[in-house]
Amino acid sequence: MPELGFFDLIFGFLLLITPVVYFHELGHYWVARKAGVIVDVFSIGFGPEIFGWTSKSGTRWRFSVIPLGGYVKMRGDDDPASTPSAITNNVEGSFANAGLYWRMAIVAAGPAANFILGIMLFAIIYMSVGKQVIPPVIGEVMPSTSAASAGLLAGDRVLEIDGIRIRNFNDMRGLVVESPNKRLSFVLQRDSREIEVYVTPNSEYNEQLQLDIGILGVKSPPSGEFIRLGLTDAIAEASSDAFHMSVVILRSLGRAASGNMQQGEVGGPVRIAEISGTVLNQGLVPFVLLTAVISINLGLINLLPVPALDGGHLAFFLLEACRGRPLPVGFQAIMMRGGIALLLGLTLFLVVNDIIRLLQ
Exactly one of 25, 178, 237, 274 is catalytic; which is it? Predict the structure, then answer.
């Protein structure tokens, strides 16, 4: 990894996170305006305002001191996390006064905008630069490896791994890398028949990633296709990539919930800044692809049913739809404040962890 200066880290991080946050909040803003909800503030970042302007609609658009996210503050909100308050329920133009399904649409629009941004960026790259497609075919099996021990052969086409459909060689590589010393079920097409074999990738420590990764011991075919896609094909391929990426993220969250996540898989704002600065130095195309990946990550993480995240709001609204009436305002407020405290504590832990890792 090249040496990065402080300016590289900050510039790369801001260039990455600003459009991702902007599109997320723009999704909330656009649907809120469609619902007749008045948006008082549209902020990129938190804390005191650096600069901004007020639009004809009355919204204050601003950039704030702490560039670690952003928010839209709608009419009647007590704070940027939309902590509910009984006095706002009948305020005209307030979020709380909107219909239940409009409130659900407003909240869901932020993560949806992140998925749209990620798919759009992928599609732009696939149409302009192209996409290299390496088929999931084993080109060579290295001797004395887990692949050789399991009986994999050159020419085998990998169809599924642990029930997940494999589209290309990168799909296979990704699942193997995240599964050191884990027994995997491979469904192969060998000649004209399908067979199932079990492979346990060897574990190898990767210095750059700072975690143990799975090593299968195979090489891809000598070359793959590098093609530019048309609009329809690019959107379809980008949507497929976004879906498979979401599966990978959910698998990672599953490992975290079960306590099997490695330290190198955990990163906060400092780690994102480090990665964004490195990728920015590699060129525009890798940086655009990284922005797409981060946008999809943000959209999916925000759908988790954690109070103060969009998924937490959606969970409350779903319960409201089932009960026929909202949850008590006091209970919602306590849960939201608890969620904020949890997220702040997690962010602080990740920052400290990143700093310790860099010092080491």
Answer: 25
Tell me the two tokens of residue 290.
Answer: 């990284």
Query: Looking at the DSSP assignment, which residues form a beta bridge with residue 225?
Result: 133
- How crowded is the C-beta side of 336, counted as CA atoms within 13 Å? 21
Distance CA 146, CA 148 (A): 5
Q: Are strands 193-199 and 184-190 parallel, antiparallel or unpaired?
A: antiparallel
Report whether CATH 3.30.1330.60 matches the domain 132-227.
Answer: no
Q: Which residues pair with 141 in a beta bridge?
A: 218
In sequence order, what are the residues at sequence separation of 6 or more whose Cβ sits closer than 8 angstroms to the Cβ of residue 112?
27, 299
For the whole model, what pTM was predicted?
A: 0.82
Maximal CA-CA distance, the chain: 72
Read off the pLDDT of residues 178-215 as tens digits, 9 standing for 90 and up: 889 889 999 999 988 999 999 999 988 877 666 788 89
Q: Which residue has the tokens 């969250």?
A: 253
25 noted as active-site residue: yes
Residues in Cβ contact with 307 at an 8 Å cutoff, skipping those fewer than 6 apart: 335, 336, 338, 339, 340, 342
Alpha-carbon distance 37 to 91, whole Å?
A: 10
Domain extent listing, the chain: 6-125+293-359, 132-227
pLDDT surpassing 90 at residue 344: no
* Span 297-327, pLDDT tens digits: 999 999 999 888 899 999 999 999 998 888 8
